[in-house]
C-alpha cells in the first residue's frame, strides 16, 4: 500500500516536470520582446567629454551594449566619415554649427533596418538634439510599421524633445517611451546604469 502511494507520487512528479520546464522556456523567450528581431543603432563619441575626462568607450555605447545584453539584439554604431574633434570644446562648437545648418554629415556603412521589428536608437544629447549623423542614418531608411525605442545619455538635459524629433523623422513607426541616463553614471556607475536599463526594458517588454 505504502509502495503504491510512493509510485503514484513519483508518476505525478514525472508527469508535471516536462510541462514546468517548457513553461519556463516560454517565459524566458517572452522577455526578449516576444522574439522580435531587435537592432540597437547608436552614435557615441570617444575623447574628451563633459564630467568623465578622456574616454575610450562613449557613454551611449556602454548603454547600447547593456541593451544588447538584455535583448539579444544586434548592435550597429553610426560612425561619421569625418571624426568629431577630440577636444570637448571644439566638438561642442562644431556640433552647434551642424545643428544650426541642419547638416547631414556622411556616415560609414549601413544596416538594413527594414529586416528588424524593433529598433532602439541611441545618442548623446547634443545641444538639446541628436547628433546630426543620427538624422543622416534615419533618413536613409523606411520606418513603416517598425517599433522604435529611443535612448540617450546626457549631462542634465535628459531626452529634451528628441522623442518628438524621432517621431517626426521615423515616419510610420510606433515610438515607445525613451530612456535617459546621465553620461557620467553610464561611465562610472555601471551597476546602477544596468539596473535602470533592465527595469526600463522589463516595462516596455510586458
Ligand atoms: C557637442 C556636445 C553637446 C552637448 N550638449 C549637451 C546638452 O545640450 N545637454 C546635456 O545634458 N549634455 C550635453 N552634452 C553632454 C553629452 O550629452 C554627454 O556627455 C553624453 O553622455 C555623451 O555621450 P557619448 O559619450 O556617448 O558621446 C554635450 C556633449 C557634447 C560633446
How far from one another are the termini?
48 Å
- Number of discrete helical segments: 7
The kinds of small molecule bound in this structure are: flavin mononucleotide
Order of helical and strand elements: HEEEHEEHEEHEHEEHH
Structural class: alpha/beta
Radius of gyration: 22 Å
Task: Report the portion of residues in β strands.
Answer: 15-25%
Percent helix range: 40-55%
Low-confidence stretches: 6-32
Q: What is the top-level CATH class? A: Alpha Beta
Q: Can you summarize the main beta sheet?
A: 6 strands, parallel
CATH topology: the name is: Rossmann fold
Mean pLDDT: 88
Can you name the CATH architecture?
3-Layer(aba) Sandwich
According to DSSP, the number of beta strands is 10
CATH superfamily: Flavodoxin domain
Summarize the structure.
With 206 residues, this protein is α/β, with parallel strands linked by helices. The protein has helices at 2-31, 59-71, 88-100, 132-138, 162-169, 183-188, 190-204; strands spanning 38-42, 47-49, 53-55, 74-77, 79-80, 107-108, 118-124, 147-154, 174-175, 179-182. The chain is built from seven helices and ten strands.
Verbal overview:
This protein is α/β, with parallel strands linked by helices and 206 residues long. Helices cover 45% and strands 19% of the residues. The strands form three sheets. Strands 1, 4, 7, 8, 9 and 10 form a six-stranded parallel beta sheet that branches. Helix 4 links the parallel strand 7 and strand 8. It is globular, with a radius of gyration of 22 Å. About 13% of the residues have low confidence. Bound molecules: flavin mononucleotide. The site of flavin mononucleotide has 23 residues, from helix 2, helix 3 and strand 8.
